[in-house]
Amino acid sequence: MGLIELVLAGLCLNATCPDESTIESLIISPRQRELTMLAEELKMETLRITTFNNGELSGYRKKGNELIGTGVAFDIIHILQDKYNFNYTIVAPEDNVFLSPTKKLGAKDLLINSRADLIAAFLPIINSFHEEISYSRRFDTAEWVVLMKRPSESATGSGLLAPFTTPVWILIILSLLVVGPIIYLLILIQARLTRDDNNRVYPLPACVWFVYGALLKQGTTINPTTDSSRLLFSTWWIFITILTAFYTANLTAFLTLSKFTLPINEPSDIKQRRYQWVSNRANGIKDYIKEENKEMLPRGAKLADIIGNGTTFPETDDMSILTHYVTDRDMMFIREKSVLDNIMYKDYKEKTKKGIDEVKRCTYVVAKFPITKFPRAFAFRHNFKYTKLFDSAIQHLVESGIIEHKFVENLPDTEICPLNLGNTERQLRNADLLLTYLLVAGGLTVAIVVFILELLIRRYWKKPRRSLRGLLGNNKHVPTPPFENNNNYDNFDYIKKITPPPPSYNSLFQPPFNYRNCQKKNINGRDYWIVKDGRGGRELIPHRTPSALLFQWSR
After folding, report:
1. Would you say the pTM of this structure is higher than 0.90?
2. Is 446 buried (19+), middle (13-18) or exposed (0-12) by CB count in 10 A?
3. CB–CB of 146/366 below 8 Å?
4. Neighbour-count burial for 84-107, b at 16+ CB within 10 Å, e otherwise
5. CATH number of 159-256
6. Tens-place pLDDT, residues 266-307
7. In the chain, at which end, N or C, are there fewer CB atoms within 10 A of the end residue's CB?
């Protein structure tokens, strides 16, 4: 070993270092020393804790002459008690709520009057209460959601009307009523402007019937001859083809898939659709709405303006509310999501024990959207000595996930009665085919009414028409019809009274009857009259042959 090493070794052996207690005292901050002192003082304290019954969250029960705390709130109190070794007594409020509307003292009143040190309950943090009480560190930001009785069918509807929404159906009906007259007017205007002999003005009923027939994929006897009318007809056909394709695809999806939707999609739907909602009397949302009404907020900014004021706040347990209000009165239950999950799980287990079929066990459903969100915490009286100590411990519980675990400790890993139950098979019910039955019944009813009207018209108009025919019988002049009718629905009695010239003589000097605008052409050594038929095509009529007689009355 060299000289330098010996000198350094001697210095290290003769050095004096502080002991471990001295090092710890130098490292610990003043805040840690304060918390340590408070923890030592708390061991000799007996805290006065007040609470109120609020389902799974907080409450108390009597065990002899002693009050025992229950719920997640007292699970946290017991964790703090094991850590700091303090004692506590429960002071029950006169009114089992946080904010009492009567002269009885609620939990908040006990805190203000210094009759209790803290409130062991999950309280929504309301800013207007900071002057009277102190809140602890936040446990979480809770969601208030809606529980309702599961509807028998999806809100999007079922059956034939399900694929489209109401505005789409309204527009389709309007198009059926409007497109027919539009086609008729455009064809009429085009015929008036062009003055072409080939233009045909189809009557309005024929145009309307074409629009309806295209919707049902039926053919038509109308044969447009002009480009403009053909474009109109093809445009409507393309529109109907696309519309029916979407309808068929969506109808198949609605009848086979089991996707389910609720009648409400956002909080404002509760008030707009006039649904009644209920919550327990000790719920924090009741206190928030009450305090909110005292503030001068603009219209629509309050929670009560969005969901409406609660119609009922019964002082009963959650399962009774589920039975008497949700099931019997079809009301909506607004509650913390963690509480509703536990309620649904209890209801599911009870129905399982009773042997109810699995399909009928999920009679309730929870909406996916939150009504509102509030941070929650304990409450201390002002100048509570151990506020900092409890806040530090609560922060560690929150960061470690213990608080969150306590809310779902008794729940399974899977979702309880989800919105979509996931059924892969779905049989059609009468509700799906109800519109079909109504259409058949409506069609038969309309047909019977029209048939009766036809009988009445024939009966009361028959005599006047016969008398008119008698007056026209002596008149040899046959009136010319005002327009050329393209169908054979009318009775052409006046044609029977016309005596044409002999066929051979007529064929020598004139074109065939009813074909004035035709041409003569020699084909393969024979003469033919080239005439145009009603469909835009051409026909050949032999010239100066006995068979020409057959073509005079072909139209």
Report:
1. no
2. exposed
3. yes
4. bebebebbebebbbbbbeeeebbb
5. 1.10.287
6. 888 888 888 899 999 888 888 888 887 777 666 667 888 888
7. N
